[in-house]
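Morning F.,

Quick status update on the modeling queue. The single chain you submitted on Monday has been processed. Sequence for confirmation:
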Amino acid sequence: MSSKTLLAALALGVFCLGAAEKISAQDNAEKKISNVGLKLNFGLGSQDFTAAQDLERGEAASLSLGYGVSQRVSLWLGVSGSSHSRETQQELESSLASLDLGVQYKLRPGKKLQPYGKLGLGAFFLNTEKTQVTLSGGGVTWGVGAEYRLVRFLSVGAEFFWKDFDYSEQRVGDNSAFNKLAQPLPGNSRGFMLNFTLQ
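Structure tokens below.
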């Protein structure tokens, strides 16, 4: 074997070794990104309703406590709220509060950018303070989004969500009991949330 061939083979070997070490270092860095364990999420965004509900788009916020049972699956318990003016009666302000339990599935565990899907069940309460009317009901929540891991313990993400539910009970006055409605009222909504997650 000539010295030139030996030198080329040696250079190729050093190059391959360096590339392998770089790939290994990237893999190790990504392996440090874990989705397992407790996490806390805070979200800010907006929520909108169908035209038939006579509610304008309003600001929304959410606070959720989660637990990652695996790299792909996390369970979440969250509360959210939003405030809305009436489209036809601007002096009436309504607020929607919800409590939901859901499961999140991530598509690229271990990577900095992780798309996901969510599905859950929720309880919803729409209160109009001036008329002292509160509607309550339940339904399904779901969403799609992605989060980006900025540092080991902090992620920022964006999510589109939908809430498909009906109001089945109504209360008039703060101290009265809820009464079942003769016909359920649709309360479907959709929105966007910017999320910050500590883990």
